[in-house]
Every structure is written in structure tokens, then in C-alpha cells.
Amino acid sequence: MEIDIATIGGYEEVGRQMTAVRAGDDIVVFDMGLNLSKVLIHDNVETERMHSLDLIDMGAIPDDRVMSDLDGEVQAIVPTHGHLDHIGAISKLAHRYDAPIVATPFTIELVKQQIESEEKFGVGNDLVKMDPGESMEIGNGLDLEFVNVTHSIIDAINPVLHTPEGSIIYGLDKRLDHTPVIGDPIDMDRFREIGREGEGVLCYIEDCTNAGRKGRTPSEQLAREEVRDVLYSMEDYKGGIVATTFSSQISRVKSIVEFAKEIGRQPVLLGRSMEKYSGTAERLDFVDFPDDLGMFGHRQSVDRTFKRIMNEGKENFLPIVTGHQGEPRAMLTRMGRGETPYQLDEGDKVIFSARVIPEPTNEGQRYQSEQLLRMQGARIFDDVHVSGHMSQEGHYTMLDTIQPQHIVPAHNDLEHLARYIDLAEGQGYRMGRDLHATRNGNVISLVE
Amino acid sequence: MEIDIATIGGYEEVGRQMTAVRAGDDIVVFDMGLNLSKVLIHDNVETERMHSLDLIDMGAIPDDRVMSDLDGEVQAIVPTHGHLDHIGAISKLAHRYDAPIVATPFTIELVKQQIESEEKFGVGNDLVKMDPGESMEIGNGLDLEFVNVTHSIIDAINPVLHTPEGSIIYGLDKRLDHTPVIGDPIDMDRFREIGREGEGVLCYIEDCTNAGRKGRTPSEQLAREEVRDVLYSMEDYKGGIVATTFSSQISRVKSIVEFAKEIGRQPVLLGRSMEKYSGTAERLDFVDFPDDLGMFGHRQSVDRTFKRIMNEGKENFLPIVTGHQGEPRAMLTRMGRGETPYQLDEGDKVIFSARVIPEPTNEGQRYQSEQLLRMQGARIFDDVHVSGHMSQEGHYTMLDTIQPQHIVPAHNDLEHLARYIDLAEGQGYRMGRDLHATRNGNVISLVE
Amino acid sequence: MEIDIATIGGYEEVGRQMTAVRAGDDIVVFDMGLNLSKVLIHDNVETERMHSLDLIDMGAIPDDRVMSDLDGEVQAIVPTHGHLDHIGAISKLAHRYDAPIVATPFTIELVKQQIESEEKFGVGNDLVKMDPGESMEIGNGLDLEFVNVTHSIIDAINPVLHTPEGSIIYGLDKRLDHTPVIGDPIDMDRFREIGREGEGVLCYIEDCTNAGRKGRTPSEQLAREEVRDVLYSMEDYKGGIVATTFSSQISRVKSIVEFAKEIGRQPVLLGRSMEKYSGTAERLDFVDFPDDLGMFGHRQSVDRTFKRIMNEGKENFLPIVTGHQGEPRAMLTRMGRGETPYQLDEGDKVIFSARVIPEPTNEGQRYQSEQLLRMQGARIFDDVHVSGHMSQEGHYTMLDTIQPQHIVPAHNDLEHLARYIDLAEGQGYRMGRDLHATRNGNVISLVE
Amino acid sequence: MEIDIATIGGYEEVGRQMTAVRAGDDIVVFDMGLNLSKVLIHDNVETERMHSLDLIDMGAIPDDRVMSDLDGEVQAIVPTHGHLDHIGAISKLAHRYDAPIVATPFTIELVKQQIESEEKFGVGNDLVKMDPGESMEIGNGLDLEFVNVTHSIIDAINPVLHTPEGSIIYGLDKRLDHTPVIGDPIDMDRFREIGREGEGVLCYIEDCTNAGRKGRTPSEQLAREEVRDVLYSMEDYKGGIVATTFSSQISRVKSIVEFAKEIGRQPVLLGRSMEKYSGTAERLDFVDFPDDLGMFGHRQSVDRTFKRIMNEGKENFLPIVTGHQGEPRAMLTRMGRGETPYQLDEGDKVIFSARVIPEPTNEGQRYQSEQLLRMQGARIFDDVHVSGHMSQEGHYTMLDTIQPQHIVPAHNDLEHLARYIDLAEGQGYRMGRDLHATRNGNVISLVE
User: Residues in domain Metallo-beta-lactamase (chains A, B, C, D) (predicted)?
Assistant: First the structure.
């Protein structure tokens, strides 16, 4: 059976991930993501109303025109998890393919919300839920399996396409977490089996984000301990405490919520993304928040909540808000500008349970946000955080575990892929032979 | 009663700490430290045989000639803890003063060992042990109290000199750790009392090392969780694992020892400093290591141990060795050079439970050490670590707690002290009034 | 005669410089500057309409309330050169003092323009011009002299107040340039004389901006050679070339203008500040631009010019525009956004004859501007530049030359002043004795 | 005619450059370099006595075993210039090939000296001189041409192999310098002709060192102006001035020598490499040094010279010495350690006309060297320098000029090559099609 890998997007950047695998006459598409930074650099761009071709020209969504080079039928579109750089282009591209979108329940729910907010295109693809650990037949003699992985969002999986020539593991976005705060540990046993059963692993497509980082990315449990350490140190403080984190990182939100309770404060989630992700997670029973946990996204209800907090005493609350990157319109930045009813006072604490994504625009905005907060008297606690992507040791472990015949490094520009290539060559692979340095828009033929 | 503070050393550098407080006719000296980097930049300098004046000229030990400007009698020499930058000049300077050395038991033991290795001077001062929480009368109407603090070495205290004019707190080298791995939490209650009793705190001498770091330095408990996360991730590895950390950081050594056991490996301490500090701690009952924990310092016994490890299988052991900064002659660097019987193989793990002290010489040496280890096949886990010095939030907390009338920032150069000065001015202090920017060799008169 | 130095502003930041010297009953004020970054961090602040007290609260202009502690009459307000951080608060503060503003002709002209744009206060102080090298009597037995210096703006001086106790040299903002592109070299001979005549130099107030930089800041001649090298390398290019630099740096503008001509292009200055500074310099005969050099500041005339350039061929022009720091509303940023009639094409060159002021906000904005330009096809030439402030060797030379009895480091925060203090202590001065580490709002009594 | 490119060394590092081109039955080898850092990391390695296979295993010299995959006869070994990373393996590898070494006169002379110092192998290859601008027939229907280029060493060329299928340009190590201080400007006219004549340029092998740097690398003329600016600023200094630079950078040495004379000092070259390179350049008439310029390499004559300088007065001399990277045994480092008769005094000037090669080992050593010099009182002038490698704009210009069909980025690791690949893709090339990302040991077939 012929096997091709089309590396459509996310091979020259982080963002707009998209990869297609053709096995015989059948094609499976993994991820259709958005590169948000290519949108935000322009003023006043509303992606909801834009045509896909314009977004392709801007570099914001994958240029899927290479799909016409693949001789087969798309059988499924498979987003691996709910981050925008993996699902953000579905509303612009999926309707071109007569195929269902297959994903885990949490991811499906986020895809559904995205499709609903789309104003330009009608996206009518079937939405099919499949849980981690499950499989389904696809096309002609193929099986699609979801292996449970651990990432900075819940219900993440690595899809595996089983073909007669061996398995294709689409390995994007995970860390090897044996003690995640929500959900099951990464299913290394299943990866080990896949590596040994049948023809083994024909190809492994790998996320290179942290391939330049030494050692191991710790478990989310460690971030939880950091949150505990910081919040308990504030146990006696009688003023305002505010926290921010990635809205989609439900396990972190959960830790903050729980330790807020433990130190005697009422947590409350504020900001549109906070409401969206945590609300969805709770509705789908991924997390069991306290019954009295408020979540507010609309400006009016947020302001009402802030007023209530000010009336009842800041010392009784712990708002968890958007704005961890200093985004100019996010809640925390607005608090820094004094645009909300919440008054920061000298000595109030602001916890960034996130790292600054290292790019000058972010760094400038985050710096401004911190300056504004400090001008109000706030004290900054930053980097109470652990990455969602594995480091070098995780890569070594994955290679040992699944022993792929071919590797396609992904999820970054060539400069970063290069670090992974060095690592993999140290393990006996060879660039140009079984280790494929590639670019957006290429097709790699593995079996001809 | 007249009160003077002589800022003798460590006000223009990290290293060679020394401060004297005169209250009436009595003087107490806090710390007599060594600036090791000023020694190591020269080839082949042996401090044991050098005269104190030469070491003063090199900037290696405090220039205590300013002591003659103080009109009083030295009643005690009080090192706060056993790090070299606090006790390393005792063997060169203490014999000039007719006064006992008063310290906690672990510190006293390290002072004793240092005096014994001195070849130039005979140091006959009395060595007096006092536990954290205890006090003694000093001179005429003064009391010396040891408040328990938490630092990267055990048995650390902040000495407090109670005078009729208020207390002088010599606050060097601590973090606010409520869950240290060994010993008691920092005694914030006592600090609070001291801040409120009698005349309150006349003066607070403060360690500024991390005054530029946002937020809070976490507890040693967090470093322990990092060690746990890393070691458990290696549970199934069948080759060599080696760890290095600050030899004097007994709590870290203890964590590594314990998790080594838990993952089924025999820990063993190798290197002269490892044997010295951990051996001393165990002998004094500060730590309860497993009975079969080997500690070897001499070249021959180290080599014998390495041979035994190679014979019995690397997979059964976890050597904890010196060399975390890449020091050219330390054990780990020698292992990288292949100068020991221990053979590193492809895939072996090396854990640096330490950060690189940020100075180009260290960075270069550490880089070389890592390169050599990697050439042997090792994989590096770095920065499995938490600092021993408090960050900005700790400083805020201390000021709230003890409310000193005067502050003297210490333990760094003026560029770093400046960051603390900004912080303290934000709390209402004022440089030139009650916040004293000073240099080595000055005398500050607090009460005239 | 009693001599006091009030260090009013610019001792904790770069920006809002202001220093007052009292000699007997007479006071001279040096500089009244604006810290623009404290304004820009807020949205929609228009300083022209704001009250001085609000601007003081924001940290934008000097808090001159300390002036009431000085027992004397203000006889003159003396801005050293025309940069905003030296003259930008005159329109808010000068009217409170019954004293003339004394400055060089170019500086006076800029002060006049600023006063005219002020909407809140009427500023009626006399404007008195004095050339470099000249002196005037001030108050009772004092002389004010202007020593010619070289900086990144023309007509800069160091004012010297001659008193019976010795001279006070207000030494802000210069480099030691013996081959400036416009005007005379720095007058080191006169500094040497002042150091040796009469009572010598009582006090030297020094600009510490680059006290941490090794070696020597080169002459503007070197920047001119850099401009030459870059522009000649483009001699054969048939597309667009655009340059940006500090608008007030007339000598740099002159170099770009001249080499543009040499490679066969018509230079044209675009943007409000470009028109303002270069127009003023030409009107006052400081620079002799080509007769046909266009300067356009208003939006309409700029757009008309851009259209003409596009019609007549980009290859015939070299626009010199505002926007070297990536300021969001400056001309070059607008060109990057495609908001002007000038069309950038693949291969067009953009020369930043400036460095990014190292602060995250600037860095983020500059990065965005470069990204936008690159998206249009532009190629970036950055850092074609030389600083206007002297480095360590300049400081050594000044101390050798004038041999001051006292030094007051200025023009930065304490962290930067600390580097100068280290340098000066290496020359025999001593902090707390004759080397004064100070803060905004202090008064230093030199002669009592 | 079949055309293969074997990318033997220098495609994963800077150092050990080696590339072979097979055209039909004939092979030409370009460069045989040494990666010195792989030697120096070990203690006490003497390359002169080592076998080539051991040096290959260390990664120090190219692994030329891939040569056996090329079906042809080596007709020439062609080093492009005299730097060690281009000629340093000739003494270890050239004797395996029955072919002459063809190079420019200066390069040939350096190769000869290297062969003479070799102790392990007898290297008997013919040494053939060819000047820039000349050509010779090679093998069967091939022509080898030397195009004059400008680099940080004199007599550098880019060899061009003219084949019936088009030209192969081996483009390593140059900047586009139209005003070099010694020799002719880069011959862009000839590159343009080659790009247009016959079949044009089949393949361009390019040096990517600075492909990540914006803009243009300036001419050596600019470095000369920097040297002038610095030395003239010291014209009145009555103490010691010492300069260091890359010994092989004769044009820089010449600038320092000439401006030393102009400010009234006798220059003198000290250190083995200084004597070697400058002596050779003078003997071959590349540079016309003053008759009285001393050059001393042996320890005894250096010490004698230093003694003479101390006797006759440091203010009359300007030693130009080795040690710009802080190499532990170089002359300047020894001066810092006080190991030479030259006494540094407070205020003496040390000029580093070089940049630190950005690698932690160098940075550490250079830092130590500067610290030692400063402890003697020296003042450091660093980075009086311009790179020898072109930046992005040079790469654009070369592509415009020669319009190659294929590009092979070289002279760095993949992470750096990636930056060039981005640049070239912006010009319409495509990785995997006509833009070849490669590794050491690969063979690229261009014409089959």
C-alpha cells in the first residue's frame, strides 16, 4: 500500500498545524490550526468574516492546496486537542472535505463552538466523538486509534493510523506526565505495544517545541505544588489576590481553585475564554469544580462580579482572569489600566501561572501589563508554571518506546526542528534517509 | 547607648561577608567570609599558607582594619551558617580578637574543621555552641539571640543583638520556608515578636541576592518534588544515573538519597566536600541517612567505590558527586574526562540539582563539563533546583514583620543593592535617611 | 558661600532631568525634562492639556516641590540641549520661577516651540540666547559659562557655574567627539583650564548612561562612515530605499542626505519631527542642506510627496522618515502597515540609523514594525549608529581633565549610577564622602 | 556529465570544512579544515603526533571515508584561504590523494608551514600557486578559476569549477568589501559574468555564518576607522597601550601598525602566530610594514623585547599581541597574569580588535583574561572590529549576481543553515528541490 505524508502546515512555524496521511486510496487529515500571531499583527482583522484564501495569504491558516497532489479520498479530519493552533482553521477549511471530524469529546465541543462562531462559511461536517483508548475503522483496511496523552489541555490524544505497512503516529503536543492533575497518565504501555506489534511504527510525526531543552519537563503535579507553595504563602494576606493562566489549561485552573478554597478565598473565573473553557470542561464532567464557583465572560456580568467583590471585601475572593501574556484587551491588562471596578491596592498579589511566550511582541505587552499593575501597587509572581511540551529526555524515551522507521519533525521552524534532528541523529537516524527535514507544502512518500 | 554598624565586607561583592555592631563598649562581629573567586582566578594559590594581609589585598577576605575605628571590645564572633562566604576567613582573622566564636552546632563543627586545616595561623578562640531559639548575655546589657531561619544549608540562624536602643537583626542568607525538608520552618512568629517588643527593631541588615527577582522563592519541598519527578521518570532505566548538588545542601542530598532508594538504587556520596558536609551532618544527628550509605572523599576510596559500582552493575547505584559548577578538578568533571573507573554509556543520566552561578567563568566551565559528559553519551538534567535566598516577596514580608527603623542592604555589589533600595523605598524608607547604601569599610552611626 | 545641589529629577530614571544649584542667595536650575515613557504607557494622554501636578504624580515631570527647601532666588533656568528629557517640562514648570531661560540658540528655538504648543499654562519667562564659549554674570558674584560639548543633537553645551568656592560643572549628555560632523569638537582645553583655574572644580554632575560600557564611544564621524558604507553598497539598486533616524540628530540626517545625493537619489524628510528639527536647524544656519531638500510634516503634504515619489520612480528618492523605535503612529510603521501611498516592494531597503532603546515596550514595537516591513518585502539594515553618550574611557578622561572635588552621578537609576560609582571609586573617590549617590528630591550641601 | 557534491565536513559545525565535487571522472576537493575546539576540550592533545583516524573520531578533522563513494580521480585539493578551519587537516589527509594542492601564494605558504610541522605523516603533494583571477585546466574538460574575494585574511578566493553542465562556485568565507585595506575589492564583475556565461551557475556552495544577521557587514575600511578613532583618542596618553587581534588578519594588523606610528609609538608584534602570519605576509610582499617593525615569536625574544620596552618607556611602544579570545597561554593572558616583563599600570589601555567568538568556553576565558588585566589597572576597549563574513544583504546580492540553479548552504550546523534556507526560500528556491539541506558525509547528485 502506498503511503504519503503531506506536511501542510506548522513545519515552518508554531501555529496552523496540518498534516495529511494517504494510505492507499484513503486520506486522514491531522489538525487544521490557526497561527494567531499572523492575524494579530494587523489592526482590526476579524477572522470570522474572512475568506480562507486571504487567511492563507496572510500565513494564518494552512495552505491546503497541496491536498490536490494526494491521490485519495479524505476519510477523516482528526484534531488532536482543542488548542487554536490545532483546531482554529477547521471553520475555514473543513467544509471543503466530505469527511467527518473525529476527536475526543472535549475537543469536539470546542470545534463545535468554533464552527458556530464562523460567519463566512457553513461547516457541515459530521462531528464524531471517540474517547482515548478507542479505535475505529477508516477507509479500506485502516484503523484509527486514539492513544491517551498528557498536555496543557485535557482530553488530548495522539492519533495512530494503523496501516498494513505499519502504524503512523501523529505525535504532536504532549509531555510524559505520569501524575497529571486531571485525567489518566500518558499511556506509555500502549505506545510500547504499538512499537512492537505487526509491522511496528512506520512513521512518527513529532512535536519539536522543546527539543532544545535539556532534561525532562516535569509533571503538572509540580506546577500544582508551585501553586500550593505560592498560595499558602499568602494565607495571612488581607488584601487582593488575582491569578491568571492559560484559560484552556483546566488542570491549572483546578489547582488554583482548590488552593484558593484551602486558604479561605472564593475563587471566581472571569473573562470570555475562562468561562468558555472551564464551563465546557465542567459541563462535560472533566472537572468537578465547587458548586459555588462563578464563571463570567460577558463584560456586564464581569463588572457586576467585580463590584460584588469590592463590596464584600477583596480578601474573601480570588479572581482567576485572562491576560497572562499581557494581551492589551484581556481582563488583567484592563485591571492594570484601572478600567474595571476591581481596585488594586499597594501589596496586592498578581500570580502569572504561565510563562511569557518568547517573542518580542508578547514580551513588550506583558512588560506593559506588569508595569501598569505595579503602578497600582501590585506585586508580581511570575512563571508559576510547567510547560506542556516534553523536553529532550521525553524525545529519547519516545524513540526508545516506539522505535519508528521514519521520523518527521514538526511543530516549529527549521531552526527548531534542527535541534530535534541533532537529537535523533544521535539515536542512529539520518537526515535525508529516515529522518525527514521538511517544509510546509511537501509530500513525503514513505512507501511507493 | 551609642550604636555603630561597621560594614566591613560583602557590601561590594558576594563573598567575604563581615559586619560589626558596636553597642556602647561592646562589639559583636557577624560573619568572616571568603570570596573564593578572588582566589581561584590565580593559578596555584593555596590559601591555607597565605598571610591575611595578602588575602586582603587580593580582595579574598574582609579588610578588618576598619575595626580600629570602633571604640569597643569584641565580645563575640558570630557566623550565621557554614557557607565559606560566611566562615571562610575565620581562620585568617579571628585570632586577632579576644572573643569566642558563637554559632549553631553544625556551623561550629565546620568552623572547627576549617581552623584545623589552617597552616599559617593558630586560631585559639573559644568555640561556643548555641542552638536556634536560644540567647546569651553579651557584654554590658546586651543579649544575643539566634532566630531559626531556613537556607540552603542546615542549622542557619539570623542573629539578633538586643540593645537598649532596640534590636539589631543581622538578616543574611535565608528564604521563607515553611516546609523545609530538614529542620524547623523559619521562625516568623519570633521575628514578629521582636518587631513589636521593647524598642522594636533599630536596624535590619538584609541579604539582597535575589532582590531583583519577582515573586517568592519556593520551599525546599518544591526542589524535593522536582527531584522526585526526575528520579521516578528514570525508574525503568537500566544504566548509570549520577547526581550532583551543592555538598553543603544536606536537605537536597537527603532527597536524592531517599528517592534513589525508592527507585531501587544504592546512593553513594563521592568527593571530598560530599563526605565532609554530609558526614558532619550525620555525625551531629541532623540527618538520618540509611545505614548503608557510603561516603568517600579520598581519591583511593572513591576509585575503589567506582570500581565496585562497575563490577556490581551501574544500574544498582546512584553516585552523588561534586562538580555541579563544572569545577575543573571536581568529581563529575573528572568523570566527563574519563579519569575515573566509572564508565558513562550512551543514555546515562546526569542530574545537576543546582543552578549555574551566573558568571562567565562558571558558565564556561560548566559548559565544558557538560560537553565532556555528552561526548561520553550522557544526558543532562539541569536546574533541578530552588534558590536558598528569598525573592522580592520575602523582602516585603520581612519588612512588614519586623518594621525596622533602619535598613542596611548587604551581600552584593551596589548594582544589586540598588534593586533592594528601590523595593524598600516603595515601602516608605528613604535612601540617605533610614536606608543606608554603603560600601566595604564604612561605619554607620545609628545612635550617637 | 553656601553651596547646595538639589537633585530634583533624573536621578532614578532617564527622563525628567532637573537639578538646582544654590550658591549663596542665588539659584540656577539646570534642565526641566519630561519622561515620555511615563506618559505613553497610558492611553490617550495629552500632556499639552494636563496640569503639572498630575504629571508629577505620573512621574512624567520633575517634582520641583523640593525647591522650597532652597533658601535663594532662581536667577536662571538653563537647559543644556534640546532633547525632551531636558526641556520637555519647561512649559509646565518654568512659569513658577521669575527667571529667564538661558540656552544656546538652537535649544532656545526648541524651547520656544514647546512653549507655543502648551495649552494649559502661559509661560512668559524671558528667553536668552548664549553661544557656546560665552559667559554671563548671574546673581551675586557668579558666572555662568557654556562649554561646547558634542552630543547627538547640535548646539549642546555643559553649563559651568563659577562660584567663589570653585566651579560647578553640570556635565550631562555628551561624548568626547573630536571630529563631529556638524559644529566644533568638544572643548577639552576649556575643561582643562577650568579644572586648574581658581579653586578648581567644586562639583561635577555627570551623565552615567553608558558607565557600564567598556572603552570609548566613537565619533559621529564613524557613524557617517557606516552610513557611507551602507548607502554606497546600494548604489546600483533600482528600487526603494528608506532611512530613519532620531529626528533631532541633525548630523546624522546630514550624512544620510549627502550620501543619498552621492548615490544619485533625491533625499526628502518626512514626518512632523523630521520637519521640525531639521527645519529649525536649517533656518538657524546650523546646517546647509541642498536647496531642493524637501521637508514635510503634515499628513497631506507627506502623502502628496509619497505619491510624487511613486509617480517619478522610487529609485530616484531616499525618504528619511520618523519611526526608528517602531513607534505605532510614526511614518515608517505606517509604511509597514501599507497606510501611505509609498509601496514597498520585494528587495527594498530600510535603514535604521538608530539603536533600539533597550526596554521591552520599544523592543516589541520595533519588532512589530520590522515584521510589517518584511511582510512588504523590505530588507532591514539596523544599528547603523553610534551612541551620543560617552563610555567608561570618556568618564576617566573627564575626571583626569577637571579633577572635581565632588561628584554627583546622574541621568539614570541607582543600578546604573552604581556602575559609575565603581568607576569613580577606582579613581580615588569614595561614596558617602565626595561621591554622592543620591535620589530625586534630595539636597546635598557641599559648602555649609 | 555526471555531477556530484560530497559534503564531507563543516556541514554540522564551523570547522573541519571539506567538500568534494565530482564532474565526470574528475574530483576536486575544496578545503580540508580542522575543528580546533574539538581538540582543545581535551587536555594535552598534540595534533601533530596524532593519527588521522583518531582525529576523525574526535570530530576534529573531516571524515573523508565518504570519498570512496565518489567514482573518480582526485585532480586537485583546493584550500580557499589560510584559516585553520580550511587548511588545518591537509597535513593529516592530503597524502592519501595523488593530487596537487592548488591555492593562492599566501595560502600555499601557510599550507607549506603546516606540512612542515606535521610529525606523523609525510605529505608530499605538489604545491601549486595560482593567483586570484587566474584559471587552470583540470581533468577532462574542466577549468578551475580563482575569483578574488575579501575576507578577514589576505589572498582569499572563491574557487569556481567550470564544467559543461555549468559552473560550481565554492563560495565559502567572504564579505562583499569594495574598499578592503589590503588587496583588491571583491570581484563582483567576474561573479556576474560567470552567472551569465555558458550554462550559468549549476551550484553555489555558500557560507552561512552570518545568515541570521540583518543588513550588511561593513568594509574593513570601517574597522580601520574604528582603530583610528580609538588610537587617536589615546594620542596624549603617557603610559602603556597594548592591542590584540586575529594574527591572520593582516589588514587589521596593518591599520594598528600605521596608526600607532601616527600617534608616535613604535608598534611591535609579539607572539608566535603574530610573527608567523605577519612575517609571511611581509615576506611575500602582501604588506609593506615599516622597516623597523619588530616581530617576535619565541619566548626569549619576546621577553627581551618586553624588557627593552620597559627600559625605554612604555609610552614609546604599542605591542600588538596574541590573546584576543583570552586563550590561557596566549601573550595577553600572560601579561594579565604578570608573567611577562611588561608591567601594566593603572590607566593603561588594552584594545581588543576582535569579537569574542560566542561560545561559553571562549566567553569564560575572555572574561578571566579581562579580569586579570583589570586587576593590573588596565582599561579595556573591546569589539573594535568588523566581521569577515557577509550578512543577509550580502547573501541576497550574491544570489542576484550569480543566479545559481542549486544552492548548498555550508559552514555551520543545521540550526544556522536554517536561517540561510529561510532567506533563500524567500528568493524562490525551495528546500528539497534546488536548495539542499545536508549533513557531513552526504553526496548530492546534481546531474545524473
Answer: 15-234
Residues A245, A174, single domain; the answer is no
Residues C240, C375 within the same domain: yes
Determine, for residues A432 and D418 on separate chains, whether the beta-carbon distance falls below 8 Å: no
Residue of A nearest to B381 (CA): A215
- Which positions ≥6 away from C298 have C-beta within 8 Å? C272
pLDDT digits (tens, 9 = 90+) for D145-197: 999 999 999 999 999 999 999 999 999 999 999 999 999 999 999 999 999 99
Task: Check whether residue A190 and residue A308 sit in a common domain.
Answer: no
For residue B111, the domain's CATH number is 3.60.15.10
> How many structural domains comprise chain D?
2
What's the whole-model pTM score? 0.96
Domain boundary (C328, C352, C381) is at C381
Is there a single domain that holds both residue B55 and residue B92? yes
Q: Which three cell numbers stand for residue D67?
A: 570519498
CATH number at residue D235: 3.40.50.10710
From A220, which residue of chain B is nearest by alpha-carbon distance? B229
Residues B87, B90, B94: CA angle, nearest 5 degrees: 145
Return the SS3 of B93: helix
State which of D356, D381, D406 marks the end of a domain: D381
How large is the C-alpha radius of gyration of chain B?
22
> Please, are residues C4 and C70 in contact by the beta-carbon 8 Å criterion?
yes
In this complex, which of C418, C430, C442 lies closest to B414 when CB atoms are compared?
A: C418
Claim to verify: residue C245 and residue C362 sit in the same structural domain: yes
State how far the Cα of B380 lies from the Cα of B244, in Å rounded to an integer: 11
Instruction: Say whether both B174 and B210 belong to one domain.
Output: yes
Grid coordinates representing D198 are 555558458
Q: Any idea of the CA torsion for B32, B37, B39, B43, to the nearest 10 degrees? A: 170
* Alpha-helix runs per DSSP H in B293-382: 299-312, 331-336, 360-375
Burial (CB count within 10 angstroms: exposed 0-12, middle 13-18, buried 19+), residue C264: exposed
Question: B442 contacts in C (CB within 8 Å)?
Answer: 432
Q: Are residues B433 and B412 in the same domain?
A: yes
pLDDT of residue C44 exceeding 80, the answer is: no
* C-alpha D405: how far from chain center: 27
Do A11 and A33 fall within a single domain? yes
Q: Which chains touch C (3 or more CB pairs under 8 A)?
A: A, B, D
Measuring CA to CA, which residue among A277, A77, A34, A79 is closest to residue A172? A79
Which domain covers residue C433, as residue numbers? 3-216+388-447
DSSP SS3 for A335: helix
Structure-block grid coordinates of residue C297: 510634516
Is B178 in contact with B356 (CB distance < 8 Å)?
no
- Residues 6 or more apart whose Cβ sits within 8 Å of residue A164: A1, A141, A199
Q: How many CB pairs under 8 A join A and C?
A: 41
| Residue D442 near residue D7 (C-beta atoms within 8 A) | yes
